[in-house]
Amino acid sequence: MxxxxxxxxxxxxxxxxxxxxxTLAILENLVDGHLIWTGFLAVTFVVLVLPAAVxxxxxxxxxxxxxxxxxLPGVTRxxxxxxxTEYATYVGVxxxxxxxxxxxxxxxEAEMSPWFADVMVVLTTMAAIGAWAILQFYSDxxxxxxxxxxxxxxxxxxVRATAAGIAAAVVFEFYFEYNTASNATLADLPEGDSG
Length: 195
Hints:
mainly alpha
């Protein structure tokens, strides 16, 4: 059993319901003409359903907690005020990074220790925000958009993204420790006493 296999969901029903909510958020952003958000949420959708599609098994889904974090930006975009959406975006990027790391651990032969997975979540979040900043820069240069306000704004974007990555890694670490302790407790019970 791999180090992170305790994160596996039992059937994926809740995760699929959350993916349904994400689908509605994608449609809402598409109808409203928010193509960048539609693209971001579509990438999130692909990351979340990729294991089920690859394995052709509906139960091959991420845990609902990870899925909920990834769906959060789409929900806040549709329902929340703009300042909440801005911070939810960073949480969403961190959640997608977390989803990728957990998918690698659960659905591939890759094995990683929890501390390495934590570092991967932070680094993947920072890399995603870096790629986003580069795309914004070239869009401003060649398409005449004004997505980047200033160098200071870009630096603060990196600070917020790093903080979100660290927060996601901390949540992941506590969640992993909780699941490991719960699974160990259930494994210690005599048969018939587990619930």
